[in-house]
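Contributing new complexes? Match this layout with glutamine.
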Amino acid sequence: MGAKLLLEDGSIFYGTPIGTKENIEAEVVVTTSMTGFQETLTDPSYCNQIVTFTYPLVGNCGINRQDFESSTSHVSAIITKELCVSPSHFEKKIDFDEYLKSCKITGLTGVDTRKLANLIRTKGTMKGKVICDDEKPVSTPTNDLVKTVTTVKPYVVPGGKDRIVALDFGVKKSLLESLSNLEATVIVLPAFSSFEEIMSYEPDGILLSNGPGDPKDISEVIPTIKKLLEEQIPLLGICLGHQLLGLSLGFESVKMKYGHRGGNHPVKDLDTKKVWITSQNHGYTLKASEVLDNIRITHVNLNDDTIEGFVHKSLPVLSVQFHPEAGPGPQDSKDILFNFSKLIKKSKVGDYHG
Ligand SMILES: NC(=O)CC[C@H](N)C(=O)O
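Output block (do not edit by hand):
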């Protein structure tokens, strides 16, 4: 038989193999983004997931030099309805399929992705196997997701006089660039750096970055985050970083039925009452089983009321579940990064009073 996706519930979706045409088992997720395939493919938060694109045509701009979110792709496989075989764009360097092969990514095209998305939304995220060749073994990727994607050595993104230390749980390049555009020199450190290592860079602000997997799988970083909170240095949590910050402050994290992945998630800013359209990519969310006295929820998702952001009432802490750097996606929420930069500047002159 032809290439196929076999789902945990027994469903089968047939398609045509693309990329390296290997066999792989991983969690199947769905993104509804209509643009930014290169950014999605290279976002480390998708590490070890089979990413289904609901937009019917993928790869029509090819792959360019500047839209990478990291140096390679960590997805397990991709599923599309149609993969463009003759991409055209003035910045294109290589075709999508060529890029998949160069990163050793497998996939299927010609799949009824609308039916697949409906199934995942009805039954929830599940595991699946992409089988391109019945004769070959099925590989199961590692569970050490953050260890796979984090930087091995510290590096610096130059920018300006504010010093931000970014703990790299799988950070997106556009997030680092957005911060450096706000007068910050960003020092990117491996995810499991110690409190002492972090403090040795004398940070004016700390970023807990986005990244793949279940936040509870890397709970060893929570004691470090708690110590950082005691230092009262401005802290920004984004997506996985938001979840880790939440766990450090008394929230719980829970797996969502099928997550939020796409470029049009409506989030309400509870202070201004404005609704932002946001870029999102997560499968876990924070919950509070009791009232957390020190926390003020600042943002909620209008589709399902989940928590999208909070601040600490007395510490300089901002945290959001969505992606204000918007790579790809709408830029409605860029102010979050601007507010973090303002918080750093205020705290540098001793002007932060909670
Ligand atoms: N983009 C992210 O940081 C994702 C966070 C986490 N891995 C989740 O799926 O919920």
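Reviewers usually confirm one structural detail per submission. For this one: Residues 45, 210-213, 239-240, 281-284 surround glutamine (CB under 6 Å).
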